[in-house]
Design goal:
By secondary structure, this protein is α+β, with helices and mostly antiparallel strands. It is 33% helix and 27% strand. It has helices at residues 4-12, 65-77, 160-178, 205-218, 228-237, 273-282, 302-313, 331-340, 350-362, 424-469, and strands at 16-23, 37-38, 52-57, 86-90, 94-96, 104-105, 108-115, 118-125, 133-141, 149-152, 156-159, 184-191, 195-202, 246-254, 318-323, 345-346, 367-372, 378-379, 388-394, 398-407, 412-422. Strands 1, 3, 4, 6, 7, 17, 18, 20 and 21 form a nine-stranded mixed sheet that branches. It has a six-stranded mixed sheet with strand order 13-12-9-14-15-16, sandwiched between helices.
């Protein structure tokens, strides 16, 4: 027999939190729902109806099978085929505590279920680093691929490089207004066929703008292949590794083209002398500002070196790629961000690029707002001291689409959407069933106990009579 009292005690401790898992074509990073989840590191859940749905309870909460099946069927029947979830715009480091968050779990998509009329939101935004100083080196992609034309609404046609530089200029011009601490140092590195040190890390922001203008005059268009590995090592060496109180980060501003520098061509395997000469002629022999870091001997490749670099950077510097052309394949840069605990961001316009760069450079945000798209209700600013998020958002019964908006002083920097289900009606109905069953069981137990008492009294009376009847 199912242990109903334990089920009742679990359900009575409201608000009840349950995790449903919707198996679909999306495959995201697996995370434990019992811990805070960096939702900005999870891949977006694309539009489409999942093939099946199953329920998973949060740690410490049990869910009866019949209620589980009922919720599974309802969630599957109401799933919106045209809606995507997860990170939709920009990106900042955002950690959310259960129940909020849609993420991979056993090959599916976790959906929180709340047995109440409001969603408790808790977590943290930003890097949560209590650093005395912050040093950021911005890497600008100035390779030939950045010359690709882009049609910017209301501004005519331009190149990716021109848009990247304009977005960076806007951020640098805003730093004196946005930065409230003199310990923010910013440096600039650019790369194409080779790597250039545009400006050493400094808090003299007008000097940064002057250095950027000077570099743009000398390199008006992108040039050559994509020397990303050398640029990353050059930026790494310009970070402050001596002072443990410094928060170090590299912001990689790129069009998303895969790194291909030509530095790691292996010409020894060519069959003929002519092929070897052609290979050697194609090899990139330009000097790298970080020569001791870049391995040019032996069999390697840009992607292998990028993976090696990711392992070596872990725990020492974050890398946050900001990719302008979202149509390109950005898996390599997403892995780089995950491996170094940075944030991978995709932007589709100069405005989005500018607002995404703001928090990446500043390392902070100004406000976090929540809205229930289903009901139209909003929550007040969730942002508290030290980047801690805390607040509640009213829910309607059934499915709710909830969005979080992050602002860093330059407009909306990030937007996340989550599917949340309020099962207050179903849970209350199930509690009523449990109470009814418990009452019936209690009545049956009372009857059995009464019958047992009567039989016991009859046996005692019989024994008394037998004792008295003896001579």
């Amino acid at each position: 027999m199912r242990q109903l009292p334990s089920v009742k005690s679990s359900c009575a401790a409201l608000p009840l939190v349950i995790f449903l898992v919707a198996a679909g074509p999306a495959s995201l990073d697996r995370r434990s729902p019992s811990e805070g989840v960096r939702v900005d590191l999870l891949a977006q859940i694309p539009a489409g109806v999942p093939s099946r749905v199953w329920a998973r309870t949060a740690p410490g909460v049990s869910l009866p099978q019949d209620l589980r099946r009922a919720l599974e069927q309802q969630l599957l029947a109401e799933w919106p085929a045209a809606t995507a979830y997860g990170s939709l715009e920009g990106g900042v480091a955002l950690t959310l505590e259960p129940p909020l968050g849609n993420f991979s779990l056993a090959g599916g998509v976790a959906v929180p279920i709340v047995a109440g009329d409001q969603l408790e939101i808790a977590g943290r935004v930003g890097r949560a680093v209590d650093a005395e100083r912050r040093r950021v080196v911005i890497i600008v992609d100035a390779s030939a691929s950045s010359n690709a034309p882009v049609e910017e609404a209301g501004q005519g046609a331009g190149s990716v490089l021109a848009i990247e530089r304009e977005a960076l200029r806007r951020v640098l011009e805003s730093l004196p207004r946005l930065n409230q601490r003199e310990t923010l140092e910013v440096g600039i590195v650019a790369f194409g066929e080779t790597t250039w040190e545009v400006a050493q890390p400094t808090s003299d922001y007008p000097a940064l703008l002057a250095a950027l203008d000077e570099f743009e005059a000398a390199h008006p268009v992108g040039h050559g292949r994509t020397d990303t590995v050398c640029a990353l090592w050059t930026a790494f060496e310009r970070l402050d590794h001596r002072n443990p109180g410094t928060d170090n980060e590299i912001v990689l501003l790129t069009d998303g083209d895969l790194p291909h520098s030509g530095r790691f061509l292996d010409c020894s395997a060519r069959r003929s002398e002519r092929e070897r000469r052609v290979c050697m002629a194609r090899r990139n022999r330009t000097s790298c500002p970080a020569p001791a870091r870049v391995r040019s001997k032996g069999r390697s490749s840009d992607l292998r070196e990028l993976n090696r670099l990711t392992r070596l950077f872990a725990g020492r510097a974050r890398v946050s790629p900001v990719v302008f052309q979202a149509s390109r394949r950005t898996n390599a840069y997403s892995r780089l961000a995950r491996g170094t605990r940075g944030t991978a961001i995709e932007a589709t316009s100069i405005g989005a690029l500018t607002t995404a760069l703001g928090p990446s450079v500043l390392g902070r945000v100004d406000s976090v707002l929540a809205q229930n798209l289903t009901s139209g209700t909003r929550a007040s600013d969730l942002l508290g001291p030290d980047g801690v998020l805390s607040g509640a958002l009213p829910l309607v019964a059934g499915a709710n689409d909830v969005e979080l908006f992050v602002d860093a002083g330059m407009g909306r920097s990030a937007r996340y959407r989550f599917r949340v289900y309020s099962a207050s009606r179903q849970v209350e109905e199930y509690l009523q069933v449990l109470r009814s069953r418990n009452r019936a069981l209690q009545a049956r137990l009372d009857a059995l106990q009464g019958e047992a008492r009567r039989r016991s009294s009859a046996r005692r009376a019989t024994r008394r009579v037998e004792v008295v009847a003896e001579p």
